[in-house]
UniProtKB/TrEMBL annotation:
Superkingdom, taxonomy of origin: Bacteria
Organism: Bradyrhizobium barranii subsp. barranii
Domain PDZ, first and last residues per copy: 278-369, 390-489
Predominant cellular place of this UniProt entry's protein: periplasm
Catalytic reaction(s) noted: Acts on substrates that are at least partially unfolded. The cleavage site P1 residue is normally between a pair of hydrophobic residues, such as Val-|-Val
Signal peptide: 1-32
Family the UniProt entry places it in: Belongs to the peptidase S1C family.
Top EC group: hydrolase
EC number: 3.4.21.107
Protein name: Probable periplasmic serine endoprotease DegP-like
Annotated localization: Periplasm
Length: 501
């Protein structure tokens, strides 16, 4: 930049300094980096923050000729870059292995480092699952350098948490959990890690946001902070100014790997529930409702007479799940679960998972514009969460059967030939889509050939004429959209709202 460009900035900085001095002269303290209590908190809790060191034997990938290929490290390993440099520097002339050795690369032992913290003086340590994932050996290194072998108590991949157990050779310092629900935007927080077993590192910042969903897992509800969380700090605690743990530092968003002021911590409310179950059972026992859910868009809300748009729309009910005998059906919108409001599908997923298995709860639904309460006894979640997005069948090329056009769709009654063409299960009933107008609302909503329309405005249909009749009636009633219940070839259901204008 030219001197002319810099000068105004210097002038503004000078005026700002004068302003601060002027305020100080009248008794107002000069601006400081954070509150006074940070050092006191750090001093009190630093010995409870530990380094987590893991080792893992990995197969070194690479072709013949003895090229010294870097092992495939666990994702997110803090030393990924260091190992990359290490193995590159060891290569001899021409990219071969040092000393000109030939032959296959043998397995190598790799190491990674992260952080954790002691929550019980008996030797219970909390960290992130990704810090210890696939490790052959785990060691906890205390703040004074003492190294202790750790046993794995249990992990929860969905919240990225793990619990370890060590046999303390001397008295330990432990920290306690605080209430993350009491955090407010702008509250000061302190992130402490022990990334390289050199002792604790302390950074401070504020709570930038709460309940962040960054689509990293089904139960996302992160605390966002601008306190620096760098490589190796994963698994370390996030403290409030009382010295209580209100989060576990887990993720950052950064193009370089270093902090740019966007870090995420699992809130203590979630951590406490997970840790308690891991200590008690060695695994998570989450509640299960047995439904597939999707968002209630403005169009879907208008079709179902729900104002304002809210809740979780039931797209499918598991035949063996707890919701089925309770009378919950596709098309119901869950707006309250066990006394807690449900604003969106994530809310329902989290509250169901946090509810004890076997507990009877009240589930408030909206069905055809009316609220109803269903009593459900929760089961236990066994299988991984199913992906909500319906699986699509590629559009085939055979000649078309007799069809009718409606809503930008070519529609045909289900026949044996059409079932075979689109591989539609016999249990699926309705009207099959054979073609979609590329410029239609249906195309934007990702309807495709092979999809089956089961219901229109919550009434079953069996022909294209049925669908057209329902659409004409909705237009006459002044409706702006129509709600379709759509099945894929395997019978998985979802709701789609299409414009009728």
């Amino acid at each position: 930049m030219t001197a002319a460009t810099i000068a105004p900035t210097r002038l503004r900085l000078g005026l700002a300094a004068l302003a601060v001095s002027a305020f100080s002269a009248f008794g107002t303290p000069a601006l400081a980096r954070g509150p006074d209590g940070i050092a006191d908190v750090a001093e009190k809790v630093i010995d409870a923050v530990v380094n987590i060191s893991t080792s893992q034997t990995v197969e070194a990938k690479g072709g013949g000729g003895g090229s010294n290929t870097m092992p495939q490290l666990p994702p997110g390993s803090p030393f990924e870059e260091f190992f990359d440099d290490f193995f590159k520097n060891r290569r001899g002339p021409g990219g071969g292995s040092k000393g000109g050795e030939r032959g296959d690369n043998p397995p190598r032992k790799t190491n990674s480092l992260g952080s954790g913290f002691i929550i019980d003086t008996a030797g219970v340590v909390v960290t992130n699952n990704h810090v210890i994932a696939d490790a052959d050996e785990i060691n906890v290194i205390l703040n004074d350098g003492t190294k202790i072998k750790a046993d794995l108590v249990g992990v929860d991949k969905k919240t990225d948490l793990a619990v370890l157990k060590i046999k303390p050779p001397k008295p330990l310092v432990a920290v306690k959990f605080g209430d993350s629900d009491k955090l407010r935007l702008g509250d000061w927080v302190i992130a402490i890690g022990n990334p390289f077993s050199l002792g604790g590192t302390v950074t401070a910042g504020i709570v930038s946001a709460k309940n962040r969903d960054i689509s990293s897992g089904p139960y996302d509800s992160y605390i966002q902070t601008d306190a620096s969380i760098n490589r190796g700090n994963s698994g370390g605690p996030l403290f409030n100014l009382d010295g209580d743990v209100i989060g576990v530092n887990t993720l950052i968003i950064s193009p370089s790997g270093g902090s740019i002021g966007i870090g995420f911590a699992v809130p203590s409310k979630t951590v406490v529930a997970v840790v308690d179950q891991l200590r008690q059972f060695g695994e998570l026992r989450r509640g299960w409702l047995g439904v597939r859910i999707q968002s209630v868009t403005d169009e879907i809300a208008e079709s179902l007479n729900i104002k304002p748009a809210r809740g979780a729309l039931v797209a499918g009910v598991d035949d063996k799940g707890p919701a089925k005998p309770a009378g919950i059906e596709p098309g119901d919108v869950v707006v309250k679960f066990d006394g807690k409001d449900v604003k969106d599908p994530k809310d329902l997923s989290r509250v169901v998972a946090d509810t004890a298995v076997g507990k009877e709860v009240d589930v408030v639904i909206i069905r055809k514009g009316q609220e109803e309460t269903k009593k459900v006894t929760l089961g236990r979640l066994q299988d991984p969460d199913k992906v909500q997005a319906a699986v699509k069948t590629d559009e085939p090329a055979p000649e078309k059967p007799v069809t009718q056009k409606a809503l930008g769709l070519d529609l045909a009654a289900l026949s044996k030939d059409l079932r075979a063409r689109y591989k539609i299960k016999d249990s699926v009933k309705g009207v099959v889509v054979t073609n979609v107008d590329a410029n239609s609302d249906a195309a934007e909503k990702r309807l495709s050939a092979g999809d089956v329309i089961v219901e229109v405005a919550q009434e079953a249909v069996s022909s294209g004429a049925d669908i057209q009749k329902r659409v004409d009636q909705l237009k006459k009633d002044g409706k702006k959209s129509v709600l379709l219940l759509v099945s894929n070839a395997d019978g998985e259901l979802r709701f789609v709202a299409l414009s009728v204008q």
